[in-house]
Amino acid sequence: MSLFKKSPWITQEVIDYLMSLPAIYQILYVVRINKDFSSPFPFRDNDGKMVANLYERNVIAIRIQYQEDGLFEDCGFGRLLDKSYIPYIKEKFEKLVAMYPSTQSNVKPKDLYMMQYTLRDSIERVTGVRGIFGDEKDVVIELNRLPFETRKRLAEFIMRLDDKCVPVSMNIIISGATDEEIGATADELALFEMEQA
65, 25 in Cβ contact below 8 A? Predict the structure, then answer.
């Protein structure tokens, strides 16, 4: 039996605040393992239940992360995480919220992840395009490797997507291009400009 009673690293007021954050945000707590390494652990699970070890030693931060893949904000602390930290955590959380779309949905994160994978499969099936990273949710496509008709079909689908739909971006990768690639692209650009005139 221990002579010293363990104390929690967090107070109930902070627990209540963290548990009130929308389910679309993952809440983790970061534990220092040694001087060179720390590791995040889930504060709440995908069903919204708290799973944190309140008596863990060496907790150094709360991490708020948008979904499982998104950016995160760490809220570091050096002593008991009490209600005096709530304004600091709110400020970090609001900074993160400003970077991502808002939702009124109460879909559980695990169901949302499955919906995202289903959408990816549907986009690939309907457009006839396969992403180059088959195990990720995002569809990354090397456009100029596709047949013309497939590119055209994909472009027509993308033109239907407005700002209410999933974000679509395109990279034109010029760094690392060869002289021949630059010349061929410049030729196509000149022809395109003539056709648009």
Answer: yes
